[in-house]
Amino acid sequence: MRGGTSRGLYIKAEDLPTNIARRDAVLLAAMGSPDARQIDGVGGAHPLTSKVAVLSAPTRDDADIDYLFLQVSVDAATVSDGQNCGNILAGVGPWAIDNGVVDARDGLTEVAVNMVNSGTVAIATVCTPGGVVDYEGDARIDGVPATAAPIPLTFLGIAGATCGALLPTGSVRDSVDGVDVTCIDNGMPVVLMRASDLGVSGHEAPDELESNATLKARVESLRCALGPRMNLGDVAHKTIPKMCLVATAERGGAVSTRTFIPHRVHEAIGVLGAVSVATACVLPGAVTDGVAAIDSPELIDVEHPTGAFSVAFELDREGAVISAALLRTARTLFRGEVYVPAHLYDDSHVSHT
Ligand code: NQM
Fold this sequence. Notes:
Blueprint: E1 2-3, E2 6-12, H1 20-31, E3 51-56, E4 65-72, E5 79-80, H2 86-98, E6 107-115, E7 120-128, E8 151-156, E9 174-176, E10 179-185, E11 189-194, H3 206-210, H4 213-229, E12 242-247, E13 255-260, H5 271-281, E14 299-304, E15 307-315, E16 321-328, E17 330-331, E18 336-339, E19 349-352
Parallel strand pairs: 2-3, 4-6, 11-12, 13-14
Antiparallel strand pairs: 1-2, 1-17, 3-4, 4-5, 6-7, 7-8, 8-16, 9-10, 10-11, 12-13, 14-15, 15-16, 18-19
């Protein structure tokens, strides 16, 4: 399925080996990793198209389905459950209904998804006229050419979901290696830095930033220094924290972003990544102060290389974020079986219906 601006395999947990090492070997083979082109698998040769949703019956009373997100590396033999993915999440509601896990109503159906990676619940609202998922519609999200049915997502209680605190270093702004940063986790651990502090405008195209070896090395060195301070331990081989360069908005939004995820630069921005960035924008003292233009703290437009991402907040009286809502779309692309070498899997294949 395409989920938001990402694409991945949606697999029933029961169709995968229970042993984690075997499961990971099967997923690496299914995607064709490690290989920069993923030529021997179904991965799309980019972190945004090398993703897996593992789906199973809910393990908590307030959820309809469990969703474990796995990031399959493209050019390394690693599979990580260390982060969430709000884009792939967008496909989980429709998948749950299409696969009989959730009964649809006539009109709109709310699906409560337990995001196993963080132990938090997201609510997805799926268009279900006549009790059937409707993927067609007029909703447009930047980074996806076609329109589709809207899938609003609402996140509650995601502050510190991974790092244990919204501001895991205990401070809204830190200085590391001469660079001011804001480390924040409102659903995704993100380090915000002003692009100008790193010698770039923050308006460059992703491939231009990716080919800047000096910048990449600097960003990675800051990331590895900050990982332990964000309660993430040694992050050298982890996909978090994400590293986000912020600059003044170019198209009337609140702020412009370029996000290292962490080795490639996102063509857009991750869902929970955008929620974390938008949250920093409404925090006095963050590195976005003087960079972000905030018309209303309840609606923050986070610009990215292919458009903008609107995050709507419910705030308490003190201005603290209670919940975040945003719009995604999703589409089923293919339903079938993906084959892996027989020695990896008892019956030589893994099905993903
Ligand atoms: O932040 C990419 C994506 C993501 C993650 C990444 C995401 C999120 O665009 O919730 O969606 O940052 O690795 O799919």
